[in-house]
Fold this sequence. Notes:
276 residues; alpha+beta; 4 helices; 28% helix
Amino acid sequence: MKRAVWIQQLTVLILTIGLASPAWAQDGRLRAADPQAQINLRSSPDPDSSPLGYGLVGDRVEILEQVPGSDDYTWVRVRFYQSGAIGWIRGDLVQPIEAATGSGAGSGTESGVESATARYQAGYSAGYQLGERDGRNARRYNAGYQPEKFIQAGSGSLDTEYDRGFRAGFFAGFDAGYNATANTTDPTHSIPANATLLTFQTDRNAVRIFSRSGQTYMNLFDKQAGRTWLNGVLVEREPAGNGIYYRYQGEVTVVVFQGNDGTRSLDINGSLERGS
């Protein structure tokens, strides 16, 4: 008799837990341009609301709900798996973790290949959207945006195909957003004190030329290796009749060219890569 009552109580408890959990809850991971960033957990979906604490890039969370915020961002209500804390985080700082499995996924069949392609495309689309917005902001505010730092943090997804697509999409979007309003008719214009001057990518590398306190610097990001291998190196800026050359001489010789006609190229030790 006691065993029957215990089983009945356990059944009620399981049903109660199942009903209390939203059917649409999803796993996520915190992300940010700075891998060392502290991401605020807030009491309401508003950047001015009181902070409840913070999470770190890579923390796993459960996404409970999503709502539009007053700052034109989507905000998500999350629960931290480790601490159990619940609150709101701006949506672009939370990467949903897509399921890496599906019909035929990983089976070596044609449907498995299609599934991998679809996951790559989903990541590319998400990355492109974020990159284009950041590129427009970099141009608009002359801010020192560093897309290579964001991409080092990655999408936060455990799905390697999604993450690979996200990284490629983010750089493509950043280039599109930044260069959509760039002044390419007069590349010899005066340099702002602190600004991104040029960003583009080749098949392997991503380039960013930026100014700081009136001097010109370069970041060079290897997309295949996923690392910045020239970070804030000082370059010489040489205006020419057909465009501008940016030169770095160090452990390698790097020449970046920005043409008046919009062409862009990267030369590393005499090996030329065309900008896309």
